[in-house]
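Good morning C.,

I know you're traveling, so I'll keep this short. The sequence:
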Amino acid sequence: MVSLAVAGFFTVRSVALWVYWNDPQHRAQAIEPWMTPKYIAHSWAVPPHVVLDALGEFQRRKKGPMSLDQIAAAQNISTSDLITSVEASIDSFNMTRPSPPSSPPQGSAPKDGS
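The tokens, ready to paste straight into the viewer:
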């Protein structure tokens, strides 16, 4: 019975996260001070290191996720400067990101020589 409850919990949680991240409003959101690096990376579909590299070195003041506000305070810089750095890092990554392979037009069959 306990295993069924645990499975149900994780199923509901997975579906809720899937619904949340498939909402277009949560994709490429304007970066806000309350956001965490992981949230930004997920919203902008970039590897977490892209955001973390932009943040630079900082002293963790708490266990667990830290918001951009908290990270800026730990570095003694303004949150807007930190956000500008993260945005520039994301833009730079997106400029060098390889394009996905193009697919053949709909309705055209591949030519195999037959």
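Safe travels,
E.
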